[in-house]
Write a structure and sequence with these properties.
This protein is mainly β and about 300 residues long. Helix content is about 5%, strand content about 40%. It has one helix and 20 strands. Strands 13, 14, 15, 16 and 17 form a five-stranded antiparallel sheet that branches. Strand 18 and strand 19 form a beta hairpin. The radius of gyration is 19 Å and the shape is globular. Bound molecules: beta-L-arabinofuranose. Beta-L-arabinofuranose binds near residues 102, 206, 259 and 261.
Length: about 300
């Protein structure tokens, strides 16, 4: 009998809902988290890393075929709502390219717009990534992909910011970081893409995330100068800049995960940073897992450096 109770005691932690610890999603690999508050819940839209294999992506590289969405009312217990968009159901995507990279999702006029970068079947306008949109009535879908990617946008890592006056902006990266206004329909650009100011000229900058706090616009981005990405930020008085570099908000990984990709979220008067690391795959940094940490700001608006909370 003692054996029976011992077994129950050992199994009990496994039966508990996921707890707030890093990484906070452990039923699959996740990366590039964009977190949003819709209603009274937090929704996280990450990329979904899977191990590559014969006939599935390129061994040693990122391998991503679909997206899940997760939600929580308390940042502790998370629900996986399952697959919302999958590569071979998007009309313009190159089949089996396993390149469904970092997404974003915003709510506008009662519709949820899910933005994702991937490789197109039609390469007449260039071989690189394009950015598509899928639209839903609920944050968990079903999402209906548009027939074609957004015209005039070439690159990865879409991020949408809606300003207080209702104007929406799309940001993305292609070596440098670009931004443009979006039309009211959220599906087309309303202005020509532009660079955003005096950002670093050396090293890759990608994964832009823009937010506003107390009249300051923050452009935050991963930047790699050495081996791995550190998170940096710049500020401006307007969403399309010009932005001035302010510093580093999270240092490079000491254990060598090449990428870091993040979003900022204010939930119940506390700011949080969502980002990723390869906690569940220490030997292969293209199978990543998402983390949360709280963020604070100094009186002058600067972001205090975030120290990762480890498991
Ligand atoms: O997840 C694939 C790519 O790695 C993302 O698009 C980048 O931001 C980096 O995290």
């Amino acid at each position: 009998n003692l054996k029976y109770w011992l077994l129950i005691a050992l199994a009990f932690p496994l039966l508990q809902p996921a707890r707030a610890q890093n990484p906070f999603i452990t039923n699959q690999f996740t990366a590039d988290p964009t977190a949003r508050v819709f209603g009274d819940r937090v929704y996280v839209y990450p990329s979904h890393d899977i191990p590559c294999g014969p006939g599935r992506g390129k061994v040693g590289w990122f391998c991503m075929e679909d997206y899940h969405v997760f939600s929580s009312a308390n940042l502790t217990d998370w629900t996986d709502h399952g697959v919302i968009v999958t590569q071979n159901k998007v009309p313009w995507v190159k089949p089996d390219s396993y390149s469904m990279w970092a997404p974003d999702c915003v709510l506008r006029n009662g519709k949820y717009y899910f933005y994702f970068p991937t490789t197109p079947r039609d390469t007449t306008q260039g071989k690189g990534f394009r950015i598509g949109v899928a639209v839903a009535d609920k944050p968990t879908g079903p999402f209906v992909p548009q027939a074609a990617p957004i015209a005039g946008v070439h690159g990865i890592d879409p991020n949408v910011f809606i300003d207080k006056d209702g104007q929406a902006y799309l940001f993305w990266s292609q070596g440098n970081i670009y931004g443009a206004k979006l039309k009211e329909n959220m599906l087309e650009l309303a202005s020509a893409p532009k660079t955003l100011g005096e950002l670093p000229t050396k090293g890759l900058k990608e994964g832009p995330y823009v937010f506003e706090r107390q009249g300051i616009y923050y452009l935050t981005y991963p930047h790699v100068e050495n081996k791995t990405e550190r998170l940096e930020y710049a500020t401006s008085t307007s969403p399309l800049g010009p932005f001035t570099v302010r510093g580093v908000l999270m240092d490079e990984s000491p254990t060598g995960c090449w990428t870091n990709h993040h979003s900022f979220l204010q939930f119940r008067n506390q700011w949080y940073l969502f980002y990723h690391h390869n906690d569940l795959s220490p030997r292969f940094d293209k199978n990543r897992s998402i983390r949360i940490d709280s963020v604070s700001f100094a009186a002058d608006g600067s972001i205090r450096k975030v120290q990762p909370t480890l498991r």
